[in-house]
Amino acid sequence: MTTDVTRNVATMRGLSSRLRPLTKVLPEHARAHNRSLVLQHLFHEGPTSRADLARATQLTRVTISDLVSALIAEGLVEELGVRPGQRVGKPAILVGMRTSAYQIVAVDLTDDMEMRGAVMSLNGAIVVRSQLNIEGRTGADLVDLLARFIRGLIASATQPVLGVGIGSPGVVDPEGLVVEAPNRRWFDVPLAADLADRLGLPVHVANDANIAALAEFTFGNADGDGFMIVTVGQGVGAGVVVDGSPMRGYRNAAGEIGHVTVLAEGGLRCACGRDGCLETVLAVPALRSATAGLSTQDSDAALASAGRLLGTALAPVISALNLSEVLLSGPAELLDGPLRETALEVIRDRTMPAVNAGLTFRMASLDEDVVLSGAAVLVLSGQLGVS
Amino acid sequence: MTTDVTRNVATMRGLSSRLRPLTKVLPEHARAHNRSLVLQHLFHEGPTSRADLARATQLTRVTISDLVSALIAEGLVEELGVRPGQRVGKPAILVGMRTSAYQIVAVDLTDDMEMRGAVMSLNGAIVVRSQLNIEGRTGADLVDLLARFIRGLIASATQPVLGVGIGSPGVVDPEGLVVEAPNRRWFDVPLAADLADRLGLPVHVANDANIAALAEFTFGNADGDGFMIVTVGQGVGAGVVVDGSPMRGYRNAAGEIGHVTVLAEGGLRCACGRDGCLETVLAVPALRSATAGLSTQDSDAALASAGRLLGTALAPVISALNLSEVLLSGPAELLDGPLRETALEVIRDRTMPAVNAGLTFRMASLDEDVVLSGAAVLVLSGQLGVS
DNA sequence: CCCCCTTAGTAAAGGGGGTCTACTAACAAA
DNA sequence: TTTGTTAGTAGACCCCCTTTACTAAGGGGG
Pfam family of this protein, just one (chains A, B) (predicted)? Predict the structure, then answer.
């Protein structure tokens, strides 16, 4: 046998990193991947014939038939009859994802005062919506309350529940351990494992801003090549998606941009104990108080000034990562005007053309249910490999 | 088995992204991955017994034996005799990577005046070194010169050459197309494809700062969970590695941090045509002229002031990505003092504890051959899946 | 010294996974 | 009709890893 070293080897990116335990790949993993490929296509493109699936995935029609029949057996996919329209050859049978066959329970814990939840269909549509006042509960009490809340949601589901997704503030590790969420008094709380235990269902937990980014990627039309969403509410958070997957950070704290100092001196005291954080000028309360009772002109100037600081903070990030989009999520009446425009101006001023030429800076396309949608994506991608 | 060739197989992460064409995974890809796993382990951990490889990779001893014998047949791996030391059971036979069986040709095009090249063994040791004055050549001329230069290096190799790696300034796409490298007058030059054609060898090209990051990851001890290297030379560049893989950016311009504006007003004119870029204060010429003829104290102050600007620019990036390390690469007498210390101080001041607590900010561990090492990693990872 | 135990490495059978080839089904157009 | 085209499936085959069982080669205790 002659040497054959001149070939390019498939390194499945990330897997060959020496950091995470080196992980073997088996044929069945390939199978799972290809299965996800099919679901992914059906999810985003809608009903498709097997032959078209084969063309789209580069798999053979035989393999696709096999995968599809397995998915049909699982109840995730169904035949939808012959494709309408006249063309040559045997008519194609469309198969589609049964988006109503399962449901997802999603919870948004962003708000300090209440938890918001929903039962959603697989395509992200909200079927049942519910909220519950937290009444100052924290720590284990809050976990108990959350468990009851979720049980209620599960009970109101009209289809089998695929899993539970939760968006929480604070630092959350990939296993759903809440490392720290000070306002909830959660420190190293194994939220996902705990709830999965109690509920007997798969539970996925992640940072709220991070999954907002996921939601914009999956349900919005954000460019997965690299974009960032800045969420403006009681606080300021961010989520970064690069190459279709969300940045995590070495201690799971990626996106914590609200506490970057943007005012070297004269900044207000921030909840985090330091002065001049971005949050002290960009969070909704800050913007409201900065514009309260001002003339339109003065209020616009105040918003522009916040935008200037935002732009200054974002310019280096956009340059370092060569992002293609920045999304703003939050009250449009505050964000989608002088603030956004000024931020973009500043970013253009402070970055090189190669970086800012293709950049778009716009409002997020999803509304206040972003985090719920993100929680749904968490479940979709965790359980079905779809995103 | 002859040339099974330039089959460029998919990368696993990002495969599920709906952006790039959905790519199937086959059992043989799993095989290739596992093969890389073995090489990866031998590369980083040194000689290992088959049984230990099985434990490390979670594959069975049978599979490992099979993979190893294939690697031995390819000449990439060899048996090294019985493992020394007494213990129970049948003595283990160590197998190791034949790092001297093949060689790599690496070229560093960072410098405006000369190209630097080397023949390296698979473990990154430089066997032959060579440089060539560019004499103002640009464009196609420069490509011709480069081809001749590389041919010379190949001729001086003492072992079969695995491939050619090139670090170029400018924007380079994943296929080795130099999108733009203004100083070289290269615009959309398919450098990798062109040279591969002429040389009959696999050629990999990437941005110099980006592969410097790769080098620190592979040969240094940078934390692949997330770090960034800032290269300070005639210009200022950066490379970001997250989860073991380098950031690319949606237009392959990730790391272009040298042209972020850091001086809103009063900045010097930059080569890029704008004012107050980081490069105008941090590049080596700028630092030298800022410190020339000054007392130690004044010079230190000047360096600290550059450090302050660097820290200010990096703080948002570190926060957004939750990086664990920042490396500085360049002349230590300029960088490794007040500049670095001040930058770190500023970063600590301007980021929240959860982000800066675990952060280290240090000089890169590789010397002026970083880019050459990075070029070697390019080949190693492209041809063998090792990094 | 012998027996037992442990560890290393291999051979053979088996099963999952995808492709290739060949076939049927079902239509449009000539 | 006949011809050509497209959709979908069946069977044979190859790749790849695992399970099971076996051999090889040591240590240690009685």
Answer: ROK
> Own/partner pairs for B44-51, CB < 8 Å, 24+ apart?
B44/A18, B46/B96, B47/B80, B47/B94, B47/B95, B47/B96, B48/B94, B48/B95, B48/B96, B49/B83, B49/B92, B49/B93, B49/B94, B49/B95, B50/B92, B50/B93, B50/B95, B51/B92
Domain range enclosing A299: 222-364
Indicate the DSSP class of residue B134. Answer: -
B/e letters for A57-70, b = 16+ CB within 10 Å, e = fewer, are bebeeebbbbbbee
Query: pLDDT tens, B168-187?
Result: 999 999 999 999 999 999 99
Q: Which of residues 259-318 of A touch B (CB under 8 A)?
A: 259-261, 272, 274, 277, 313-317
Residues of A in contact with B74 (CB under 8 A): 1, 3-5
Compute the average pLDDT of residues B289-299. 94
The separation, in Å, between residue B59 CA and nucleotide D22 C1' comes to 20
CATH number at A283 reads 3.30.420.40
> Is the separation of the CB atoms in A243 and A227 below 8 Å?
no
C-alpha radius of gyration, chain A, whole number:
23
For residues A166-189, give the mean pLDDT.
95
pTM above 0.85, yes or no: yes
Output the domain CATH number for residue B44. 1.10.10.10
- Gap between the Cα atoms of B77 and B67, Å rounded: 10
B23 neighbourhood in chain A, CB within 8 Å: 37, 58
